[in-house]
Amino acid sequence: MSTRFIDKVSVASAIRTLPGAAGIGVLGSQVLLNVDGNLIPLSGIEPNGAVYYVDPNVGDDENDGRSWATAFDTMAAAFAVLDSGDTIVFRGKVREQLTTPVQIFDVTIIGAGNRPRHADSSPAGGEEAANTWTTPASGATTAPLCKVLQQGWRFVNILFAGPTDHACVQLYRDAGSGNDERDAAHAEFIGCRFASGYDGISDTGGCPDVLVQNCRFEALTHFSILGVGNIGVGQSDWKIVDNTFDGMSNGIKIAAFGCRIQNNTFTDGETPATTVVLNTNNGGGADNFIVYNFFQTTTANFNDPDVVGCTGDVWFNVSIDATSAGVGGNLESGKPA
């Protein structure tokens, strides 16, 4: 008897496929079928949830959105018909700023391109299969690309190019009760690329248990990940693992409680010794594991304001001075000063 496994992958393009044969893989907690580069979700399908398709290249909002042949033109059209547990698969360039519908939970949005990349029209055809979410071509853009209001939303394999003054994705939480509660807790970002804009991910209300895995943050002018502090809640039980923070103005600044930040790589920010690389104590925080990360910063700068920890944290990382010839890595054990 032989045992067979389905591969766990970090990017959709790693799901193996051959001529005449489709591949199946697990990306995060999503099971995907790869048929000649087209991704089809195998988990979260009916009866547990419907699958809708969005294609700004050829779609029409008068369609039913239930196949590529009858895809919607806009993400807004898909949002208008969602039920909890549904999945949206899109390709091309979405140019919208949206707020998720209320009382709709556990929605998955998947970019259908092989890797999260810009949907460019040159060379010809480059806009047809990529997976970009960016601002409208004209008009005011003073809002996040996506403001999430309820729990369990998942974003997979998407390139975000955000506005100049708001986040690519904003997680929102208020003090509402009963059916009036808005809380974007338990969100997931898997294999996404935050390529430009103000903030990558912004948590404005203290949403717990968020997963950020195998994402890339670059060229953001404010923060890669910013979590509100000084409200007595902060960001609890977040998992920020296997990500790249590269060429950004600032890295992570959150009020971390019981978080795991592991296996990430950080460049030294726009202006070393004055901007944030990783700060888990944004007005509060405690008892985090920050381990096996690589920081492109000198040991001398492995402290406030570049790197800041909390009471009860466990730190075990490597700092590397990439600007000095012949200087190797330094093992940094213990909370930074």
Briefly summarize what is shown.
By secondary structure, the protein is mostly beta strands.
Give structural attributes.
337 residues, mainly beta, Pectate Lyase C-like, 18-stranded mixed beta sheet, 8-stranded parallel beta sheet
Task: Write structural notes for this entry.
- 3% of the residues lie in helices and 34% in strands.
- The mean pLDDT is 88.
- It has one domain (45-333): Pectate Lyase C-like (3 Solenoid).
- The protein has an 18-stranded mixed β-sheet that branches.
- Strand 2 and strand 3 form a beta hairpin.
- The chain has 337 residues and is mainly β.
- It has two helices and 32 strands.
Break the fold down into its secondary structure elements and pairings.
Blueprint lengths: L6 E3 L13 E5 L2 E6 L2 E4 L9 E4 L20 H7 L5 E4 L1 E4 L2 E2 L8 E4 L14 H4 L1 E4 L11 E3 L5 E3 L2 E3 L5 E5 L16 E3 L2 E4 L2 E5 L7 E3 L2 E3 L6 E3 L7 E2 L2 E3 L2 E3 L5 E2 L2 E2 L2 E3 L2 E2 L11 E2 L9 E7 L11 E2 L5 E7 L8 E5 L4
